[in-house]
Amino acid sequence: MKKIFTLMLMVVFMLGFAGLGFADMEKCDKCHKGEKSVDKMVAKAKIVTADDLAKALRQGPRAGMHKSMSDDDINAAATTLKLKRLQ
């Protein structure tokens, strides 16, 4: 019984990490690999805020490919990339 409880606790803990945004970059990582990884592209474009990231995705040259990204997805990516938030 104790092992089952421990296993369930571990599963809940791992799902909690996924819910906090640690797994949100998986959507980006499907296409953005190697030299085209998100963190390298953000550094190259000198994106420092979440608003800059949203603008680049919504109005950039590849905006059509990012239409399916919600504002929550962009905010989660900004959080994972540790970008500044303007308020």
Question: How does this structure look, described?
Answer:
The model is unreliable at 17-22 (pLDDT under 50). With 87 residues, the protein is mainly alpha-helical. The chain is built from five helices and no strands. It has one domain (23-87). It has helices at residues 2-22, 26-29, 38-44, 50-59, 71-80. 9% of the residues are buried. It is elongated and about 55 Å long.
Beta-strand residue percentage: under 5%
The overall number of domains is: 1
How many H/I helices?
Answer: 5
Q: Judging from the principal axes of the Cα atoms, what is the shape?
A: elongated
What separation lies between the terminal Cα atoms?
49 Å
Q: What are the secondary-structure elements, in order, as H or E?
A: HHHHH
Rg value: 16 Å
Please tally the β strands and state the result: 0
Structural class: mainly alpha
Tell me about the largest β-sheet: none
